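From the shared-data thread, chain only:
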Amino acid sequence: MALATRQQTNNRPRLLQAAMDAFAQPDIRRKVIFTVVVLIIFRFIAHIPVPNANRDQLDAIFQQSAVLGFLNLFSGGTLQQLSIAALGVYPYVTAQIIVQIMTPLVPSFQALQKEGEQGRNRLQLYANYLAVPLAAVQGYAQLQLIQSNGGISGIGFGGANAQLGPSAAERSQSNLRIVSQ
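Structure, as tokens:
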């Protein structure tokens, strides 16, 4: 019986056997399942567009601009749809790169790296904190790039003057009429 099982495993390709052996370990199986679930959730979120975006106009802009097409390629198509998940993991990856570059240059980062696991965890925390403002800056920059190509209008820190589509002003006027009656 053991000989038949061993022959069966020897007939499988080594990569497939290694994947099966890894999936047999509960810790690795849990991590792989978690990763697959997160990817599925991300793909669902990638189909939720920002409200009031003119999709026809965005499609035309992305057909004309090579830069936007290139960015859309790396975002998995979420930028062209102006999805709420258009940034993907860009800010996190950028923050990780910045922390890695700064580690040899900043003495306190060097000391944290030499502390072992606890120091690496602290550097990871710094990268996570850095990812939040980077997300804001990168998101604003992407919107400005789309706006400069005519995809959307009114992007800025103006509050009431900002609009993502041509009907935003019309809706605010109709809301004012409803409130005043």
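Confidence is low (pLDDT under 50) at residues 174-180.
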